[in-house]
């Protein structure tokens, strides 16, 4: 990818700290009345990895994302973020710690420009008290504004969206809107990026572009990725670790190759629209990691 701006400095962990997972979900349950949307879910996402959560419709993937990011409060269990419990924190405080997410349906301000949407991403870190505002009024605030501008420019360059920076979001193709959503999430300076169906509704070319950007975010920026995605080809190609949910429970987890050959996983997908895709992957018996 052409880039004459260096990537953001990695918040790279010292070797000893890398053993602490970016995210550790332990025995999490979430009930809606009598329905167990999540039931004893346990898995972790290693620092600097792409971890994907898959499962048939209604398996609990979105509920899991909402619980991790703090929109829902788990009935039982715990969630640790880089070793620290976030169980008592609400969604905005988890976002401030560096949990950024995109949504299944694009959640951008369609009448606003690309740049203004990206600028909104930084609000996760903005302080609002009067004292803070006064303190920030001087040099520190100017310096911070410059840093933020620099970050925005790096993101725009990195995601190759310079040509549309002043375009209203509503005028963009679906694939570009998804890329702007990714840009806004990056502006939050995330330590973990949670992507809810990042390539849903995309054509093949847009999907490949998005897959490349996700890998670049991981590799060049050192950001951990947690992704929910139905596109099995994309999941198997770019994931380091795959977690399979069915009826709110983890039925399998492991490397993509193990998962796509797991009979329980294939059985879970029978009758779902995704089974053809999964079967194709199994028959194909190869992924990018094997080609490389
Ligand atoms: N707010 C809610 N109130 C009641 N039930 C809910 C709520 N949200 C989800 N559910 C139920 O919880 C279960 C898990 O739903 P969830 O949306 O998490 O699944 P999913 O794996 O994300 O599905 P999809 O792939 O279709 O998006 C489903 O049975 C769903 O009907």
Automatic annotation (TrEMBL):
<dbReference type="Pfam" id="PF12399">
    <property type="entry name" value="BCA_ABC_TP_C"/>
</dbReference>
<dbReference type="GO" id="GO:0016887">
    <property type="term" value="F:ATP hydrolysis activity"/>
</dbReference>
<dbReference type="GO" id="GO:0005524">
    <property type="term" value="F:ATP binding"/>
</dbReference>
<dbReference type="InterPro" id="IPR003439">
    <property type="entry name" value="ABC_transporter-like_ATP-bd"/>
</dbReference>
<feature type="domain" description="ABC transporter">
    <location>
        <begin position="23"/>
        <end position="272"/>
    </location>
</feature>
<protein>
    <submittedName>
        <fullName>Amino acid/amide ABC transporter ATP-binding protein 1, HAAT family</fullName>
    </submittedName>
</protein>
<keyword id="KW-0067">ATP-binding</keyword>
<dbReference type="InterPro" id="IPR027417">
    <property type="entry name" value="P-loop_NTPase"/>
</dbReference>
<dbReference type="InterPro" id="IPR051120">
    <property type="entry name" value="ABC_AA/LPS_Transport"/>
</dbReference>
<dbReference type="InterPro" id="IPR003593">
    <property type="entry name" value="AAA+_ATPase"/>
</dbReference>
<keyword id="KW-0813">Transport</keyword>
<dbReference type="GO" id="GO:0005886">
    <property type="term" value="C:plasma membrane"/>
</dbReference>
<dbReference type="Pfam" id="PF00005">
    <property type="entry name" value="ABC_tran"/>
</dbReference>
<keyword id="KW-0547">Nucleotide-binding</keyword>
<dbReference type="InterPro" id="IPR032823">
    <property type="entry name" value="BCA_ABC_TP_C"/>
</dbReference>
């Amino acid at each position: 990818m052409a880039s004459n701006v260096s990537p953001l400095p990695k918040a790279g962990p010292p070797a000893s700290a890398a053993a602490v997972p970016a995210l550790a979900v332990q025995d999490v349950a979430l009930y809606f009345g009598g329905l167990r949307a999540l039931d004893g879910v346990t898995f972790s996402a290693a620092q600097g990895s792409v971890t994907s959560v898959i499962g048939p419709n209604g398996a609990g993937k979105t509920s899991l994302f909402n619980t991790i990011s703090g929109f829902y409060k788990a009935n039982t269990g715990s969630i640790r973020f880089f070793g620290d419990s976030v169980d008592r924190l609400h969604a905005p405080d988890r976002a401030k710690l560096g949990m950024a997410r995109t949504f299944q349906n694009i959640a951008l301000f369609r009448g606003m420009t690309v740049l203004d949407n990206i600028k909104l991403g930084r609000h996760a870190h903005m302080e609002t008290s009067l004292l803070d505002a006064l303190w920030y009024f001087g040099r520190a605030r100017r310096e911070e504004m410059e840093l933020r501008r620099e970050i925005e420019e790096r993101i725009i360059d990195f995601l190759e969206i310079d040509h549309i920076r002043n375009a209203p979001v509503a005028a963009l193709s679906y694939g570009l809107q998804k890329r702007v959503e990714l840009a806004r999430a990056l502006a939050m300076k995330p330590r973990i990026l949670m992507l809810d169906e990042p390539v849903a509704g995309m054509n093949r070319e847009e999907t490949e572009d998005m897959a490349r950007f996700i890998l670049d975010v991981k590799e060049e920026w050192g950001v951990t990725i947690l992704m929910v995605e139905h596109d099995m080809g994309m999941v198997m190609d770019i994931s380091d670790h795959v977690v399979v949910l069915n009826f709110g429970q983890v039925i399998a987890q492991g490397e993509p190759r193990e998962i796509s050959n797991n009979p329980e996983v294939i059985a879970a997908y029978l009758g779902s629209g995704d089974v053809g895709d999964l079967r194709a992957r199994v028959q194909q018996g190869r992924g990018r990691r094997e080609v490389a």
